[in-house]
Specification:
By secondary structure, the chain is an alpha/beta fold. The protein has helices at about 10-20, 35-40, 55-70, 85-95, 100-110, 115-130, 140-150, 160-165, 170-185, 190-210, 225-230, 240-245, 280-290; strands spanning about 1-5, 25-30, 45-50, 75-85, 135-140, 220-225, 245-255, 270-275. It is built from 13 helices and 8 strands. The protein is globular, with a radius of gyration of 19 Å.
């Protein structure tokens, strides 16, 4: 495997830092479905990141999962694109006496309409075809908004807050999430919006970790955005120490010709893919911000 360094620097600066031993390294895996399937087979718990609209990343992950299942492995499959309240309906459809295509259509219809289901339908097809649990991993947008507006008590009871470690969020984690929210919105948000949105992001990560709990013993692959897949601030942080040891976090990063800006410990490995052509999202956000 190649190596990329965990530093927020240009490629030239990274080369100098590497010579000086100034940065931590991360494995760079080839964008090859056989290699990715082999990596998934070695780890009972895997979190695969994504750039949500990158078609090449979705093709790679779906092909790797197909190879994994074809080889006889049966980890559960968890998706950020379904909300936790949809789990009972998904379970019923997985067990329904109906053709695969019909069940896939009905499960996809449950998903949040904010996603491009052309990308996510193949994962649902794999879960139905290979009869593996399909986990609705995410907090709903409505509950995330409640957390941002009114705090975690608006969406979680006291026992759930304690179990998910939402009552006393570490200051370093909130700082990191504030920074990610700010950068993700191209520095267009008012300062007083950063903390509420950071708390909502924390609640999403904690929810995903909680939804994985029932299937951790059998093994699970979680498909989620790269922010959720990060080992330092994402879902892995909310797993038990033993489950963290069993987990691998793999970021799928767009290669735009520059070294990825990765903090130390963000991922166990990354896969570089071609960037998806798209308008500059920052220009759109800046226009909306006035």
């Amino acid at each position: 495997m190649n190596v990329i360094l965990h530093c927020r620097r240009s490629i030239a600066a990274i080369a100098l830092a590497a010579a000086a031993g100034g940065c931590a390294s991360v494995d760079v895996m080839p964008a090859n479905p056989d290699e990715l399937a082999a990596q998934l087979a070695r780890h009972p718990v895997a979190i695969l990141g994504e750039t949500h609209d990158n078609a090449a990343q979705h093709r790679l992950r779906a092909a790797a999962l197909a190879r994994l299942y074809e080889g006889g492995a049966r980890p559960a499959l968890a998706l950020e694109q379904f909300d936790r309240g949809q789990q009972a309906a998904i379970d019923a459809l997985l067990q329904a006496d109906a053709p695969v295509a019909e069940r896939v259509d009905r499960i996809v219809a449950l998903g949040d309409r904010g996603w491009n289901w052309t990308y996510y339908r193949p994962y649902v097809e794999l879960a139905v075809t290979y009869r593996v649990p399909l986990i609705a991993a995410n907090l709903s947008r409505a509950d995330a908004l409640r957390v941002a507006r009114d705090g975690v008590g608006a969406a979680f009871g006291p026992a759930e807050q304690a179990a998910m470690r939402l009552q006393d969020v570490p200051a370093d984690l909130l700082r990191a999430q504030r920074r990610e929210v700010d950068e993700g919105h191209c520095h267009t948000l008012p300062a007083d919006a950063l903390e509420p949105m950071a708390r909502a992001q924390v609640a999403r990560d904690a929810t995903m970790a909680a939804m994985l709990q029932p299937v951790l013993p059998r093994g699970v692959v979680l498909l989620a955005g790269n922010g959720h897949a990060r080992r330092d601030i994402g879902v892995v942080r909310y797993l038990s120490p033993a489950d963290r040891q069993r987990a691998v976090s793999i970021g799928l990063i767009e290669d735009d010709g520059h070294a990825p800006e990765l903090p130390r410990g963000a991922f166990d490995a990354i896969i570089l893919t071609a960037a998806q052509p798209r308008p500059d999202p920052c220009l759109e956000l800046q226009k909306k911000a006035g």
